[in-house]
Amino acid sequence: MNQDKMYLINKLFNDKTIRTVWDKDEEKYYVSVTDIVGAVSESKDGRKYWNKLKQRLKEEGNESVTNCHQLKLKSSDGKYYATDVVDIEGMFRLIESVPSKNAEPIKQWLAHLGSERIDEIFDPSIATQRSIDLYRTKGFDEKWISERIKGIQNRKELMIIPGAVHTDLYDNLEVIPFDKIEKFIRNNLK
Q1: Contacts of residue 61, Cβ cutoff 8 Å, sequence gap at least 6
Q2: Residues 6 or more apart in contact with residue 169 via CB below 8 angstroms
Q3: Considering Cα of 86, then 90, then 94, then 97, what sign does the dihedral take?
Q4: CA 43 to CA 99: how far, in whole Å?
Q5: Which of 59, 75, 88, 93 is the most exposed place for a label (fewest CB within 10 A)?
Q6: Strands 69-74, 28-32: pairing kind
Q7: What digits encode the pLDDT tens for the residues 16-54?
Q8: Looking at the whole model, is its pTM more than 0.70?
Q9: Alpha helices of the chain — where are they, by DSSP H?
Q10: Reading across the β-sheet that carries 20-23, which strands appear in turn?
């Protein structure tokens, strides 16, 4: 899944090289700010453009700069240098700050996604249908999709154990519903 995410990111930037690093402790990708800014700004020097943009964003009180970290990324000369990086959410926040025609399609896409999420808040069935449509687009058959949706619902089942408090489930073996747990494992971990 993570490689799919990085493939999508590179497609967003017309296959320009966007340096990334996976942080296994935080379990998320970080991307090079200068690569992102260079790709969307039409600037010949992404680093200089980022320095000016960073200054402007600081003056405006924009949190995007605060959320930048520095990690060592490999440069075109083969050496590793401390480079400003942001996570995926921060990447999109930065793109929103870049005034450029190259950034417009991504900004429009983000606005569309935001609108879809608001629609889903008012009608959650839209999210389920979106998932089904996405599975169809990826080529999954109807039976697989149906089982997947049912499996998602089954995993969300709430277990209420009368007379038990949450700590009983750690140290009172008599109230732990082993039969339900076994059934869940059999049905969902095939």
Answers
A1: none
A2: 161, 175, 176
A3: negative
A4: 11
A5: 59
A6: unpaired
A7: 778 888 888 888 889 899 988 888 887 888 889 998 988
A8: no
A9: 2-12, 33-41, 46-60, 63-66, 88-97, 104-122, 125-137, 142-155, 168-171, 178-188
A10: 20-23, 28-32, 80-87, 69-74
